[in-house]
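Issue 218. Parser rejects a valid record. Input:
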Amino acid sequence: MDFQDLLQNIKDFFSNLWNKITEYVSENKMLSACIGALVVVILIALILLCAALKKPEAKGYERPLTLTEEMIVPPGPAVPDGYNPSRVTKEAWTSEEAEAWFTKPGTKELDDLSKANDRLVEEITGAAP
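Output the parser choked on:
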């Protein structure tokens, strides 16, 4: 089969299809008119839908921004003197650091912590059988 035979087969297929369609339309005029009208309505609806879904073009600024004064960066939070944002941490405090920074809890703080823990345990196990 060469290229000319392929073209002839395609031509014969479409001519047979056209003959069948014209024969069907001549036999069923009302149904064919309804189908044609339905196809036209669907095409119009698709065209309108595509037009409605088109994104509007982005508007640019109406007028350019003109500065009347130099822009000033707002002040940030002040960093105290001697503040180091990162440091190497030690594994343990020295006894001087412990005396300076660690406060031993009193009996009131320990009692409050104990009561809070008891309430938490009671809340967790309260509904358990």
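Fixed in the parser; the record now loads. DSSP finds four helices and no strands in the chain.
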